[in-house]
Amino acid sequence: MRFLQFAMATLAVATATQAYSTYDKKILSDSPVLYLCMDPASSSTVDGNSTEKDLSGSGTEALYNCDCGTMMSAHLPNGDKAVNFTGTQYLEVASSPNYSIPTTGGLTLEAWIAPSTLQFADDESTGYVHWLSKGTTQAPEWVLRIYSYNNTENRPNRISAYAFNQTGGFGSGSYFQDAVTVNQWIHVVGSYNQTASTKYPRGYVKIYKNGILRGTTGLDQYNTVPWSGTDPLRVGTRDFRSFFEGAIGKVAVYPRELDASTIMGHYEAMTSNGTAYMYSY
Q1: Per-residue pLDDT for the chain (281 aa), expressed as one digit of tens each?
Q2: Considering only the top CATH level, what class is 33-271?
Q3: Could you give the 3-state DSSP secondary structure of residue 266?
Q4: Which of 2, 6, 206, 213 is deepest in the core (most CB within 10 A)?
Q5: Helix (H) or strand (E) holding 262
Q6: Rg from Cα positions in the chain
Q7: CB contact at 8 A, 38 and 76
């Protein structure tokens, strides 16, 4: 109830200065600790880079690094705007304990992505790019990544959610691996829960595609113990060794695992009025 009261109070204040879509209202009603619409039209420009305010009410401000003024835009399925990343740009948000799994023992990451290529020009390691992540030194806390179509692990355009130990190494993760259509929107949700059970003694990581649960993997896969660091959250890259090409919109972080019905509700809020902009152009 406290989460809902806070979200509605935030929405009441924010709507005095900015119009919100049905989707935005739905997200804010579920009390994210970070919500970035990723709308270039709502950003401001400072020293050649655009800034964007977190709509969750935290007072956080995100910075686009592009030296290009206003970022290029794309259309989401409901007609809202999103940001088009061309392969050298990224968005950075200062670290907060609210973005770390151990703070509450649960975390959900949500965004819409529309890759503009199947083979990323600037991928890393075995052939993947990080498009949403936290952690740049030693090891990431968590990442959402997508593989290029051609990669050394034979994972064509696999989309994954991982959590890592502070010492690095392999991460425990879940994924889906479907054919990707260039410029077509995909709703991706990665969620983490450290609650121990007989089946998942360290908890688990889940991944959803377009509102549907596609994978659940125990954090004991690689004896992963999620950790909390001070590195920033980034969209479009993690540590500048790879960059995403395509559109990203509606990035949200929640301090708990969202249930399946809530996630499906978010997907339906974006698509229920038709999909005139199912493709990002």
Answers
A1: 433 333 433 434 343 346 799 999 999 999 999 999 998 766 655 455 688 899 999 989 999 987 555 578 899 999 999 999 999 999 999 999 999 999 999 999 999 999 999 999 999 999 999 999 999 877 899 999 999 999 999 999 999 999 999 998 899 999 999 999 999 999 999 999 999 999 999 999 999 999 999 999 999 999 999 999 999 999 999 999 999 999 999 999 999 999 999 999 999 999 987 665 677 66
A2: mainly beta
A3: helix
A4: 206
A5: helix 260-271
A6: 17
A7: no
